Amino acid sequence: MAGSSSVQKVQNGLSDVSLNGGSKWGDQMSSKSSSSDGGSVRGGDKNKKFRKNNSSNGGDKNKKFTKNTYIEVFDKSKSTHHYYNVYFYKEKTIKTTVTHTASKVDQWINNVYNAKHDKLDNLIVGLDIEWRRMRNYQSKRNKVAVLQLCVGRHCLIFQFSCCDAIPESLHDFLGNEKFIFVGSGIQSDAYKLLVDYNLRVARTEELGSLAAYELTETEEDCAESPFHGAGLKELTREILKKELPKKRGTQWSDWQKNFLRDEQVEYACLDAFVSFRLGMRLLNRGNPVHTENNDKDPSQPEEVEEE
Length: 307
Description:
CATH topology: Nucleotidyltransferase, domain 5
Shape: globular
CATH superfamily: Ribonuclease H-like superfamily/Ribonuclease H
Helix content: 25-40%
Number of domains: 1
Strand content: 15-25%
Keywords: Hydrolase, Nuclease
GO cellular component, one term: nucleus
Low-confidence stretches: 1-48, 51-66, 285-307
CATH class: Alpha Beta
Region (Disordered): 1-62, 286-307
Pfam family, one: DNA_pol_A_exo1
Order of helices and strands: EEEHEEEHEHEHHHHH
Protein name: 3'-5' exonuclease domain-containing protein
Number of helices: 8
Structural class: alpha/beta
Largest sheet: 8 strands, mixed
Distance between the termini: 19 Å
Number of strands: 8
C-alpha cells in the first residue's frame, strides 16, 4: 500500500520508521497489520478490581472481529521523516510524524505553537515513552529509545536511539509550565527522560490518579478507587469505553532499532493519542482549547478527500 499521494485506509494502527542502519528510510515498504478491539463497561462495586474484557473473543464463533484501529502510510519518501495516518475507532485521522532529526521536531513543535497560539494555557499533551525492556530484571535499564507526544490529532514519534541531536525546542516544550503532560505512569516516564537526556517535564498529571479524583464523589471513594492502579488499557476501557491494543510482544520489542515495525509505530502512537483523549476527558471536557476545528498540521502533506 505504499503511497505518498493517495490516501487509502488499511487495517489497524500505524507504521514503520527509522534512520541509520542497513536500509534508507525511503526504501522501507509498509505492511498491513490488524487488531480486534471491543468496548465494555465495568459494572458493580467501584472498589472491585477491573475485570478483563473478553467480549471480543466470546459469543458466536462465526462472527467476524471488528477492526477498530487502522493504518496507512501517507509518505515515506523522505530521508528525515515519514508520515502515517492512524485511525482509532471512529476518531478522525491521527496524523503521525516519525523522525530522528532535530529539525523535524522543531517544525512539529512550531506547528503546535502556531495552531494553538491563543490557547496555550493549560494545553493538554499526551506523553509516553518506549525503551528496550530487559528480560533479566537485574540488568541495568536501557535508555529511553522513543518519545511520543500528541496534541489533538497530531502525534510526534521521536527516536532518541538514532537521532542527530536533541533540539532545544524539545527542552523548552517539555519544560513549559503552561502545558499539562498526561499519561499513565507519567512521573516514572518524566524521571527517565530527565536521567537519560536531561529533559525536564515541568507539569504532569497521572491519569489513574486523575480519574480516581474526577470520577468519585467522596474522599473515601477516591482513596479506594481502582483507577489508582489502572494502566492505560484499563483506563481506556473504563472511561472511553474502547479497547486499546496492547500486545506484550510489541511492548517488549526492540525500540532501539533504526526501522520500527508497523505494529511498533501503531503501539507508540495510540498510547500517546489515548493519553491525550483521557486527559481531555478528565481535565477539560468542552474546553475550546481542545476542539478539533482548525487542527491542520502544515508539516504534513495535503490529504486527498475520499468520497
